[in-house]
Design goal:
This protein has 9 helices and 12 strands. Strands 1, 5, 6, 7, 8, 9, 10, 11 and 12 form a 9-stranded mixed beta sheet that branches. Strands 2-3-4 form a 3-stranded antiparallel beta sheet, with helices on one face. The protein has 2 domains: about 140 residues, Periplasmic binding protein-like II (D-Maltodextrin-Binding Protein, domain 2, 3-Layer(aba) Sandwich), CATH 3.40.190; about 100 residues, D-Maltodextrin-Binding Protein, domain 2 (3-Layer(aba) Sandwich). Helices cover about 35% and strands about 30% of the residues. It starts with 6 loop residues before the first helix and ends in a 6-residue tail after the last helix. The relative contact order is 0.21.
Length: about 250
């Protein structure tokens, strides 16, 4: 899902020394709470979603209690390294840049990026056709970075603090299209707000590995999370969670 080019420099300066949290009876899990269907806050104020169900299943497998802690996306890596929580389960992409600041578990799903736009639009996603278009994406994500790296000289890029705000501007006509994770777009297109919109073109980035981030050198927690992930895949718990949100496998 999400890439970042700026906050990592601050994050690196706050790196922890790798003290493991495994021995604790409770693990604090950092997430955004604004990225449906993966993490969101429901009408009752509870944090829910695919990421949260995966985190709870992993904690149950490790026989520890999970406490979910929300954080703004821009500050989530510095918050991890400041020990406000023990791991990040927030649909975070593995990137070389992030590896300077955190360690990652094995991936727990694979994503891809795809444009959406109004059904009434003839938006084409090749570079020549996109010239002069206004395209939105969430700030500090793979989508935002991909736009800057690949289309920065062609389109006007608008970046938003949350994915929801990108969709709001798409709905109001302030942008011609939005680039985001396919599964997040898929969820929005099913909603009343998204029913007049559709995918455009093919995915532009289709091997985005999503994993859990932990503090650098916390090898013990990383290993236990990897073992727990394998266990919930093998025993069918992962599939049960997957099927709750998607009619296809995202593993």
């Amino acid at each position: 899902m999400k890439n970042y080019k700026k906050l990592l420099f601050a994050a690196v300066t706050t790196l922890a020394l790798g003290t493991s949290a495994v021995a604790a009876e409770k693990l604090k899990v950092g997430t955004e709470g604004a990225y449906p269907p993966f993490n969101l806050i429901d009408a009752s104020g509870k944090v829910v979603g695919f990421d949260i169900d995966i985190a709870n299943a992993l904690c149950a497998q490790m026989k520890v209690e999970c406490e979910i802690v929300t954080s703004d996306w821009d500050g989530i890596i510095p918050a991890l390294n400041a020990k406000k929580f023990d791991m990040i389960v927030a649909s975070m992409s593995i990137t070389d840049e992030r590896k300077q600041a955190v360690d990652f578990t094995n991936p727990y799903y694979t994503n891809k990026l795809q444009f959406i736009a109004p059904k009434s639009s003839d938006l084409k996603t090749d570079k020549a056709s996109l010239k002069g278009k206004v395209i939105g994406a969430q700030r500090a994500t793979i989508a935002g970075t991909w736009l800057e790296d690949n289309l920065g000289d062609v389109v006007e890029i608008k970046l938003y603090d949350t994915q929801e705000n990108a969709y709001l501007d798409l709905s109001s006509g302030r942008v011609d299209g939005v680039l985001a994770d396919k599964f997040v777009n898929w969820e929005w297109l099913k909603s009343d707000a998204g029913k007049a919109y559709e995918f455009k073109g093919e995915p532009v980035f289709d091997n985005d590995k999503i994993a859990i981030a932990v503090r650098k050198n916390d090898t013990e927690l990383t290993n236990k999370l990897n073992a727990a992930l394998k266990a919930i895949v093998d025993n069918g718990t992962y599939k049960t969670i997957n099927d709750k949100y998607f009619p296809f496998s995202i593993y």
